[in-house]
Each structure stands twice: as C-alpha cells, then as structure tokens.
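May I ask for a single protein's sequence together with how it folds?
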Amino acid sequence: MRIALVRHGPTLWNVQGRIQGKTDIALSDDGAAQMARLRLPRNFSYARAFVSPLQRARQTAALLGIENPVIDARLAEHDWGRWEGLTREEILARDGPDALSYSGLELHPPGGESMRDFIARVTAFLRDAAAGEGDAVAVTHRGVMRAAYVIATGWNMATPMPPELDLSKILVLDGTLAIATLNVPLEAR
C-alpha cells in the first residue's frame, strides 16, 4: 500500500511569495497551463484518490486527470491565521525579526493553527488512508507534504527544509507512513 502526495500547481500568490494557508486561491493561468501538460507517472496506479477542499488542489487534480477524488478537509493547507496573504518581509516588518524564526513544532501563527495540531490532522488522514484498500493519491499542499515528511522521518522542523525533499515532485509513503520514494516527477502528457 502506497500513498502518493502531490502538491497543487502554482498560484499568483506563490509567484508573489505570499502565504496562502487556508485562503482559497485559484491556480494562476500559468499554473493551470503547467498542470494541464502533466500527468501522474504511467507506472503509478491507484485505487483511491483524495483532494484538499481548496480550489487550487481541486483544479490540479482535475488537470492531472484524477477523477472523482474524495474531498478531505484534513488535506487543507496549514491555517496561517493573520499571516495569510502576507509575504515573509511583510510579516517580519509587522511582527518583528523573530516572527518566522525556526521554532519548529512549536510554531503557532497568530490566529492560526499550531504546528502540532496541523501535524496531528495530517497524521489522522495518513493513518486512515493507510488503513484502506489499495494505493492512494492525494492532491494537497506544501505544508501537508512537509508534515508528512515530519511524520515519516522525525524531522523537527527547527532547521531549514531538508534539501533532499523536493516539494514540486511526488512524495510517496508506504503503509507504515515511512518514505517509500522521494521526488517522483510528474510526467509530460
């Protein structure tokens, strides 16, 4: 049993460096065009498909040809509270130079979701998916993929993201929630 996690395509806020979180931003025109040119790898089959309720993930799933995915709120991006819509520079100017320091699992954006609660939400989804029959694919967000990496490896998020994790590619976990394969590229149609 495998669970493949795929990040949504680019949005305008991605290009601008804005934190999206649970703000429901659509794919940019360029992002939609990029995803329409891609597909899951030919050698990957799945019995079940899941998607975040946010439109950027749902659009990506449709453009990749993933049919009838189950919408699961646990796949939504981390709730960044009052930081959503802001760039890193805007947050630091408003909330001080330590606002985004690597506080790891203790991060709790003002008005948002604690990192520990977020990881617990992602863990619950992954455990349920692992208990199901057959391989699964889930179209989701950067934060969810980082949380899955934390769950699989024990990374404490107190350091920069490990360089071996490429969030533009597919992260595959096995049924024990360990990493099965890192950095599987989407394929051109």
Summary: The mean pLDDT is 95. The helical segments are 12-16, 29-36, 55-63, 88-95, 115-131, 142-153. The longest helix spans residues 115-131.
